[in-house]
Structure formats: C-alpha cells, structure tokens
Amino acid sequence: MELRRGGVGSQAAGRRMDGDCRDGGCKDAGSEDYENLPTSASVSTHMTAGAIAGILEHSIMYPVDSVKTRMQSLNPDPKAQYTSIYGALKKIMHTEGFWRPLRGLNVMIMGAGPAHAMYFACYENMKRTLNDVFGHQGNSHLANGIAGSMATLLHDAVMNPAEVVKQRLQMYNSQHQSALNCIRMVWRTEGLGAFYRSYTTQLTMNIPFQSIHFITYEFLQEQVNPRRDYNPQSHIISGGLAGALAAAATTPLDVCKTLLNTQDNTALSLANISGRLSGMANAFRTVYQLNGLAGYFKGIQPRVIYQMPSTAISWSVYEFFKYFLTKRQLENRTLY
C-alpha cells in the first residue's frame, strides 16, 4: 500500500471512499492510499485527531510557554529577569517550586482540546470546499489561506479566555493560586469583556501567523517530500520550520497580546496609564513608549523555540491520528 499524506497539500479532485479507479485500475477500500483516506474522513475524525494534537502540543511545550510569557513582560520584577530558557526554568523551579512552570496547564488543556478540534475540522472542510469552488485541481495556497483564517476565528474564540487565565497564572508573583480563582476574580473585577480584551489582537496575530505557517509548510513539503508520500519526518521538519518562521514574524503582535492579557500593573504605571489597557493600537504605543523597537521582539527566542516543536508535534500527531482513525473506519466498513 502506497502511503501518501492527506494534509494541507492533498488534491481535492478524484477522491473516493470506496474504490479509486485512477490509471485504469480500481482499489478496494482496504487498499486506499493515505492521500485518499483523509479526504473522506468524517468531521468527528478531524475533531478527534485535532483535539489530541492540540492537547499534546500544548502540554509538552507548556513550561517553555510559561517562560515566554515572563520574558515578554515589559517591566519584569528583578527577581524574574531571565537570560535563557534553561536558566529561567531552573530558577523558577528552585525559587518557586518544582511544579510552578506548569501552573495553568489545566485550563490550557480544557481550551486546547475543543479549540483544535474545531480548528482542524473547519480547516479541512473549508479547504476542500474552496478548492472545489476555485476549480483547482491541486493544492491552492489561496484556498488554504482563507480556510486557515476562517478556522482561526473559531479557534481563538475558544482559546482566548483560556489564554487570559493561563497567562495571569504564569506571571511572576501572580495573585491567583488556581484557574478557578483567577476566573472568578477577573469576572468580578473586570467583567466578561476581560476574557476577550485581546481577541482582536489575537486574530490580527494568528491570521498572518497561519498564512505564513501554511504557505511555508506547503513550500517545504514540495521541497523535501515532492511525491507527498506519508513521511513523518517530512511533517516534523516542514511543520517545525514553518512554525519557527511564522512565530518570529508575528512576535510584535504576541508581545502586545501578552500585555493586554496580563494588564501588567508595573508597566502600565510607568506608561502613566490608569485603569485598563484595551485595543491593539494602544498596546503598540505602550510597548514602544516603554521599550522602543526592541520591545516588540521581547521573548522572541522562547517564542520560536516554543513554536518550532509545537507545530512539528501538532502536524505529526494530527496526521497520524487522522490516518489511523479513518483507516480503522474503512476497515470496519469492509468487515460489515
């Protein structure tokens, strides 16, 4: 059985669940190649594979994400100033407890599961539909970009509240001891809008992030895996490099998002801002006022180091489970 990937670069035309009659020959369902399997995958398969990929990605990389959040602080406490990821993790565990880098992981898992489930399901179906609408016989970067942007709207709607809570828990000397305590306090003191204060910034960051991510991923797949055979190594390499480039390019927006999410009181006081900071434009002005151009790239190293393995994990896990679950469904169908 020839295994071909059915991820971002799969063709929209000529795919069937029960039998493929290309080149004058037909294959039964049990002989479907990998390129064809995901095309007819059910929505539940996309959602299940996406949820697993999202949870694993965020869980494995969460300690690095905690360091990234702290290193993006515009005016960090002297006790929370770090020069490297390893040094930061070592210092945090030594001074604040072994499990401190994992505080907030529970709320991130609760958000990542449904967010990635909806993201991948929406992306796959929108991509296939748009390829048909455009009449594209192969891979359309435009279709991928639009599908990714639409899927991002759903993903971020679920993830944004989780991001707000987990980033406040990650901050040094956080006043919140648990996710539930944080949710209650934010709701009581700042209202529901606080959970979506950075939503527009999140979308402004993630839409270009996903566009760069998918375009780069497709380009690299064409270079390292031109036949689009199922090759886990190519998923890891392409996904990792695509995530690194997208992360570096969108770091300024991530810094602004972190400021809006955490509402760093010390930084806001230095900028003579009373009350709450809102709006991406205000966040950009505040970052520049406090740290100049260099402020937009605070935490770029941990962000890239976080995103590189994250996207590699996400793509490899997602493609594997999508293939595994769909192949299992097809095998069960042939039995009955």
From TrEMBL:
Chain intervals with Basic and acidic residues compositional bias: 15-24
Region: Disordered, residue numbers: 1-24
Swiss-Prot/TrEMBL catalytic activity: Fe(2+)(in) = Fe(2+)(out)
Entry membrane topology: Multi-pass membrane protein
GO cellular component: mitochondrial inner membrane
Subcellular location: Mitochondrion inner membrane
Free-text function comment from the UniProt entry: Mitochondrial iron transporter that specifically mediates iron uptake in developing erythroid cells, thereby playing an essential role in heme biosynthesis.
Name of the protein in its database record: Mitoferrin-1
Origin species: Nannospalax galili (Northern Israeli blind subterranean mole rat)
Lineage: Eukaryota, Metazoa, Chordata, Craniata, Vertebrata
Gene: Slc25a37
